[in-house]
Amino acid sequence: MSDFGEETFDPNNNIATWYLFYDSVMNWGPDGNLVGEAAESWTISDDGLTWTFKVREGMTFHNGDPVTSADFSYSIKRFMAPDSTNPWAPRVRENYAGMSTPDKYTYIHKTKTPELTLVASWAAPLPILPSKYIQEVGFDYFLEHPIGSGPWSFVEYTPETNIIFEAFDDYWDGAPYFETLECIQVPEEATRVAMLKRDEIDLIQVTMDRTVELRDEGYRLQELGLPTISIYAFQGTWMTDGPTGDVRIRQAMSYAINRQEVIDTYFHGLGYPGCFWFMTELTWGYDPALDADPYDPELARQLIEEAGYPDAFATPTIHLYTPAQWSEEMLICQGYWEEIGLDVEVQIVEMGKFFDLMFSRADSPDAECVGQIWSWINPSVNQNVYHSSNMFTSLGVHTTANDPEMDVLYDQVLAETNLERQEQLWSEFMVRGHGMWIVTGMWQVPGYWVTSEYLGEFTKRAYLTYQECFDGIKHAE
Amino acid sequence: MVRFILIRLLQSVVALVGIAVMVFAMVRISGDPALMLATATSTAEDIQRIRVNLGLDKSIPEQFWIFVTDVVQGDLGESLFKKRPVTEMIGAALPNSIRLILPSWGVAMLGALLLGVLGATRRDTFLDNGVKFIAIMGQALPGFWVAIVSVFIFSVTWQLLPTSGLGGIDHYILPVAALAFFLLPGMMRLVRSSMLDVLDSEYIKLARIKGLPERQIIWKHALRNALIAPLTVAGILFAGLITGAVVIETVFSWPGIGWILVEGVMARDFPLVQAIILLVAVAVLGINLLVDILYAYIDPQIRLQKT
User: Fold this and answer.
1) Which sequence spans correspond to the domains of chain A?
2) ipTM value of the model?
3) Please, what CATH class does the domain formed by A1-185 belong to?
4) Do B253 and A187 lie within an 8 Å CB cutoff?
5) Distance CA A354, CA A321 (A)
6) Residues B216-257: tens digit of each pLDDT
7) Which of A378, A451, A459, B73 has the smallest count of CB within 10 Å of its CB?
8) B 144-183 residues with CB below 8 A of A?
């Protein structure tokens, strides 16, 4: 890994190591469906207000204690505590009405209003902690000597260096094939490559160019996790009289991009055209109407001509800002936009400045972000409901939409108690958002990792995150 | 001498207070760290809650007062991103930095001394040209390139040394050599030019006329006077390396102070950045104080000057 990120085993903060030694309430399946993890099954009452989780019987923590409903109530209480900084905690906290544990293996959770999309929080993941152990040893001791019920048990952690785990033989889903797992922090890509070649490490992720070089040298590539998506979004379109205020210009910008050409050249063929805001074909509620726009420079030119560009605009230059690490893709787009006659200036900003502009909920045309475009290159997700409230509702923090219809649709989605109907409503919401042209998807690139000759088949959850697949890696034949 | 040290100490304290104020102000000018902690699902209310949790909703004077009182009590706060006490982070990273810097600095200074003296005493010979060539190479080749190439030669191709990480003595060879290679040329040139100046002075000519052995003239009489300028630079170099070895730390996955400072800056991690800069300031001021005392020891005229 290039960086461990948050260096604590507190599940309210840490994300990177959750998957290794905790189990979540539930998780996402290979087809974007939900599957049980610590909860073997669950039901939702007809009014959508009561969730009943059946705890997986026979499942134990690494110290041998059984996982029970008391662990569920402890973990969920802690997860949604006011001081929890977990990004999913507010969703559970704000719609919490009560909990109970009628027996050792049943946990009941009540919400104030129906919100079936809370599955995103239950599968966020929401790790189940060993309440009895924590009460015995105290939380500070637990953070130093954490245990969970996941496939790997904690052995040793050296900050900014490595974390060592050993296989948990009694894992409910089968023990890992390897006995030991060591995650090493290696910030420099060239060093990761050297370590792989020196047989010091078995699995690395590097940039696309290096990935292709290593593949050509005979190393095997393994696809892990959900694809990374590249999008760009328009801010304050209703507040600007500049070019981005005109939907035809926004639309033309999408038709101008030859997505397949970028995949074939820049990504060496290792990607696919099309994606949407935190969405790919694997995301809940995906609709074919969200497929990639065609490459049609003629139509793009026609649209900008209809919009009267450049004469109709006092300042025809369009501004786009991006952090340095995503700038190459934006500069490629700039070339396509130039070809159809659009003047787009790409401004590379430091990440802090990028967040200042992207998260600025501007309420006046004078705000710095209004009329600007920002890039976003991030992994897609299984369910993008809460992400999309920020993009498409008028209360979103990105200042990208101001459509009261979208607000109404969003509330309808959240209130729907029938899962099938809810998914249909969500598709409608996203398709309407797509038609606003305030966010444009470009391409999706699977997460390719390079493996050593010692690793065999990846048999478990490779479709989720790289951390979640380790227990399913077989030895090479 | 005591008065000299006391005045220098007082000056250091004043400088430290100034640095603390400046660091506190500058990290805040860089922007709102709550936005760096926000995620794609964060609402405006979530972002405000992050600010409250971090104490960023308080006024700047209030934040400064909390910062000062905490620092005085030895509490440097908790890293916003790593979620670990900053003192613990520095406590873990600083020994790693020292373990890398000390041998690199020692090797570089010793090498610079020997090669600098050799260059000065064998001026314009094959040896001197060789020394100058090393100096040019060391200054022209970027440190990260030297480090990466050395890993590929010695670790990957010849399989002689480990690529990176902390460990036994073999883990030190490449990072120490790479860092020393970066430090050596400048210091070597400085020693050489200082030596040339001193060797040209009247008292050295007198020593030669008196028939003192050349070895004694060079190593006892000339070198001692030639060391004043290199000594200052050596001290500054050492202090600067505490955070300045970041390239070598990154290439060799060496978890030192430089690396965590870069992480902190990128993430607007106020407590971490403030603490490390204060630490470096203390180190620089301390080393400068030590160099001043050494100066005064080497050259008594200095301690008699008005400070």
Assistant:
1) 1-185, 228-445
2) 0.84
3) alpha beta
4) yes
5) 7
6) 999 888 988 888 888 888 888 888 888 788 899 999 999 999
7) B73
8) 148, 151-152, 155-156, 159, 162-166
